[in-house]
Write a structure and sequence with these properties.
With 162 residues, this protein is an alpha+beta fold. It has one domain: Nuclear Transport Factor 2, Chain: A (Roll). It has a six-stranded mixed beta sheet with strand order 2-1-6-5-4-3. A hairpin with a 4-residue loop joins strand 4 and strand 5. It starts with a helix and ends with a helix.
Amino acid sequence: MNNNEQTLIRFYSAFAALDADTMAKCYADDATFEDPAFSLKGRREVGGMWHMLCDATKSKGRDDWRLEFRDIHADDTTGHAHWEAHYRFRVAKRVVHNIIEAEFTFTPEGLIATHKDTFDFWRWSRQAMGLGGLILGWIPFFRSQMRKQTRVALTKYLAKKT
């Protein structure tokens, strides 16, 4: 197992344990993160997002939380992982099973430089928001609004932490 695969295993093992500090340490200072809900730059934002999400999950109790990962592959510069999260979406209190494919690039030191998660947003929105997600989840405007809301939530969270 190479250094970059070890970084991914450390990252997802920490995520399963809701250990955002260890997750954040897996990223380079100038790392970027992208998924349907977030577009982030720098360890402060990326690590802040993981802290926010882990804190929210811990605050509701871990009863509904479970993370599974597999298919960890990495070479000297790129990597891939498959992961699945089971949790209760805090807004609608609905149970979600999200299936994600992750792509990475790494620094020479074995830290995550770029991280891009892809998942079926419409599937996620149907689970997380019910009928509203079913009707609106496929519309680009809905996704855009969600990104704005997650940006506001992260900005408020980071302001409280500094």
